[in-house]
Amino acid sequence: xxxxxxxxxxxxxxxxxxxxxLISQLGNVDNPLILHFFAANYNWxxxxxxxxxxxxxEYCDLGTGLLxxxxxxxxxxxxxxxxxxxxxxxxxxxxx
Length: 96
What we know:
The protein has helices at 2-12, 19-26, 32-40, 49-56, 62-71, 74-79, 81-85, 90-95. The chain has 96 residues and is mainly α. The longest helix is centred in the first third of the chain and has 11 residues, at 2-12. It is globular and about 35 Å long.
């Protein structure tokens, strides 16, 4: 039964009302695979609050962290740190 509960949770959570509710619920997730699912399917046009909540979750594993790093264009920071520091995208810079 636990598996069915996780599937329902995973299907319904992205559609719950409000980003704050989603962030609150993600803080309670203790399954690294669910965190990875959200990271892999996140719409980056919605900002950095949800990825930040995923990373701050104690059950976020290295694979999920690297996926978020990749999706947030982290390689640009490694290749050209000056470009990142000169960027006008403050929220992106703060995320790193």
